[in-house]
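Record type: monomer structure entry
Structure origin: computed from sequence
Chain ID: A
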Amino acid sequence: MKWAILIFGVLVAGGFFTVKLSTKNGNDEYDEIFLREATANGIDPKLLKAIAMNESGLKFNYTQLERIGGTTGILHIKLSTAQDYEPELTAIELSKPETQIRVAAKHIKRLLSVFNGDSGKVVAAYNAGEGRIQQGIIPQTTKEYLERFQRNYKRVG
């Protein structure tokens, strides 16, 4: 599959930027956190928020923990993945949206490095796993995820 450029905006490489995030449905509850953590990690805040929209519709649901393989929260981060970045992190701490966003920003920053800034591969790896994307394995569900991500990215103002 040829990777399409999914990001229709300015990606920042370590610089300071000002962005106002908003979605057409008005779900802006965590925007300050998205902006702060994206800025701290030098990533596009729209990328971070659009992934959250894909993962959860920006709604935190505790019942998802058992249902979807140990992931939870607005960014569906597994505790084991979160502990790659913050080893002392507990499941209770990970249950907080602010923690989810902080850890996801670190994870996305690393994926951007691994995939040389290719945001399409980063989004695919966030969904399907880094190893699958490195091997060129792109499940149909990930292709659908990428399409949904494009729509969500466009919705973030």
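Annotation 1: The domain at 31-155 is CATH 1.10.530.10 (Lysozyme).
Annotation 2: The first strand starts at residue 71 and ends at 72.
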